[in-house]
């Protein structure tokens, strides 16, 4: 049975062209780019090319790209750097729907004595810019707002949010892990100081990412060590990973328009097909301001995990919007922040596509998923009385 992979917001397939680009850097061009000899030094030129490719996708200059090990490291570096570089400012603003890489760090920083304001979202998962305006204080070091949400695909107004942050003297970071490669961007036209991306979300391998740091923005390295990355990130470079990230960014730039039409059309067919055939289904996320590859649906009166298990039997990979915390299934923090009703929040499934999905795959899911929901509803323990989700917990 062939796998139908609809979990691309969790991780993506390494593009075969990316893998081919990386291949020589394991057994042949394995030198250390910091070495004095030609054998190692030549690797440095390939790193330069990769840096230029990443920068080109963002509209940045190569010197503004710092390679990291993952999206989590980029988020941590940006947030900790902003606080460390402005020791008199101890307030941070972010949202309730960030990835744990931002949210759990923010909560950790509160324990260390920093102040935190978490912005809420409306029923579509969208932030309120007036709430952001009110949240910023004189001692706000950084506003960190994700470009696109990994669970719902909702795209935030980063330009407006960045302008508000900058007008009040705060630095602005965006976790763009889900946006890079899916949304065209030109960071030099935007009020962004830091931008995080991760390789494995855009068809590069796991274990590599990048942080954009706008030229002139005060910066403190997170990993203090050697002089790699011009002193901005110690540690011998993940050369094959960086080469792969460069190639993946080049491919993403070439494919971005095509993806926005072809992948979006597949996603729309999936979304419309399911909404039309399965009653009591709701779309989680903004109807229009949304990533072209993501659809998050809630099926009333069923458990998301049960849906995933039955999809898995058909070789279909998806994610649910619940997390198993201390033995009980809790709706995700994103769906809770959106106030999705209890009887819906438990039955949420995220389907996220990539350029490797086909029309046949989508047709198969549209054909089979309604029967799965029907089957589960016929044995569902839920009732209307349980529909009293408070949005807390
Ligand atoms: C996946 C993801 C991350 C974390 O990236 P890693 O490379 O897995 O550390 C951060 N933010 C968002 C929005 C993500 O989707």
Give the bound compounds.
pyridoxal-5'-phosphate
Average residue-wise pLDDT: 95
Helix content: 25-40%
Structural class: alpha/beta
Could you give a short account of the major beta sheet?
Answer: 7 strands, mixed
Using the CA coordinates, give the radius of gyration: 22 Å
**CATH A-level architecture of the largest domain:** 3-Layer(aba) Sandwich
Principal-axes geometry comes out as globular
Q: How many E strands?
A: 15
Number of domains: 2
The ordered string of helix (H) and strand (E) elements is EHHHEHEHEHEHEEEHEEHEEEEHHEH
Q: Write out the strand line-up for the largest beta sheet, numbering strands in chain order.
A: 2-8-7-6-5-3-4
Unreliable spans are 387-393
Strand composition percent: 15-25%
CATH superfamily of the largest domain: Type I PLP-dependent aspartate aminotransferase-like (Major domain)
Look up the CATH topology of the largest domain: Aspartate Aminotransferase, domain 2
Tell me the span between the first and last alpha carbons: 40 Å
Question: What's the total helix number?
Answer: 12
């Amino acid at each position: 049975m062939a796998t139908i992979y609809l979990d691309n917001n969790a991780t993506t397939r390494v593009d075969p062209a990316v893998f081919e680009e990386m291949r020589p850097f394991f057994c042949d061009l394995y030198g250390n780019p910091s070495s004095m000899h030609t054998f190692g030094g030549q690797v440095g030129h390939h790193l330069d090319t990769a840096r230029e490719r990443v920068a080109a996708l963002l509209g940045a200059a190569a010197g503004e790209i710092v390679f990291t090990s993952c999206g989590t490291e980029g988020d941590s570096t940006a947030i900790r750097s902003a606080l460390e570089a402005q020791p008199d400012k101890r307030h941070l603003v972010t949202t309730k729907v960030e990835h744990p890489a931002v949210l759990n760090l923010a909560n950790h920083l509160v324990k260390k004595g920093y102040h935190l304001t978490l912005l809420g979202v409306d029923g579509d998962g969208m932030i309120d810019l007036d709430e952001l305006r009110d949240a910023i204080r004189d001692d706000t070091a950084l506003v960190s707002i994700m470009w696109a949400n990994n669970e719902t695909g909702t795209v935030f107004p980063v330009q407006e949010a960045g302008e508000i942050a900058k007008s009040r003297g705060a630095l602005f970071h965006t976790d763009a892990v889900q946006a890079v490669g899916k949304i065209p961007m030109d960071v030099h036209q935007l009020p962004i100081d830091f931008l995080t991306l991760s390789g494995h979300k855009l068809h590069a391998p796991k274990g590599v990412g990048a942080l954009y740091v706008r030229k002139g923005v005060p910066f403190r390295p997170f990993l203090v060590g050697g002089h790699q990355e011009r002193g901005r990130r110690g540690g011998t470079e993940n050369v094959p990973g960086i080469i792969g990230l460069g190639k993946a960014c080049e491919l993403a730039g070439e494919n971005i328009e095509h993806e926005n039409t072809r992948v979006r059309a597949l996603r729309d067919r999936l979304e419309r097909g399911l909404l039309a055939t399965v009653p009591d289904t709701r779309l989680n996320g903004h109807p229009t301001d949304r990533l072209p590859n993501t659809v998050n649906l809630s099926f009333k009166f069923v458990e998301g995990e049960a849906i995933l298990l039955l999809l898995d039997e058909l070789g279909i990979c998806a994610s649910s919007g619940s997390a198993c915390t201390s033995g009980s299934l809790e709706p995700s923090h994103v769906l809770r922040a959106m106030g999705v009703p209890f009887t819906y929040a438990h039955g949420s499934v995220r389907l996220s596509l990539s350029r490797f999905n086909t029309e046949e795959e989508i047709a198969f899911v549209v054909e089979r998923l309604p029967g799965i929901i029907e089957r589960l509803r016929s044995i569902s323990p839920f009732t209307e009385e349980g529909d009293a989700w408070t949005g807390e917990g």
